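User: I'll paste a sequence; please echo it back and then give the predicted structure.

Assistant: Echoing your sequence first, then the prediction.
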Amino acid sequence: MSGTPPLLTSVFRCLPVDLQAIPHIPQCVNGFLMPETIDAAVYNDLQAGIRVYVEGYSAEAFVGAAANGHLDVFIWLYENYRRLGHPIDEMVAAAGHGRLQVVKSIVIWLPFLDCDLALRAAAASGHLAVVDGWTYKLWTHH
């Protein structure tokens, strides 16, 4: 090691000295900057969190956004970090949670995907709207 403190232990030093003296403040700052926190922000539709802390989240953020029906966050992730996405996992998560709009979006963007796993997930979870969506009418929109 070169003697340079890791980024997460240095960030809190930007706070006023009075706040640095409170023991839990540095821990909170570090906690907010952890990749798991960023993923959690996506799960809860806190898109601002992603924009502030652009790097450091994983493919789980895509799955979380899809499963929770946060289409705006899901689209933003694909527009900016497509390489981290796993469309089949995301479609299965969205279908399994009854997120028809997310499923439709994935199929529109990536029509070549094998939808069998997603259809099974929707059926197993009792999301008939998603199952019914797998009709000629839905998938022949273009």
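The chain is about 65% helix and 0% strand. Residues 44 and 103 are 19 Å apart (CA to CA).
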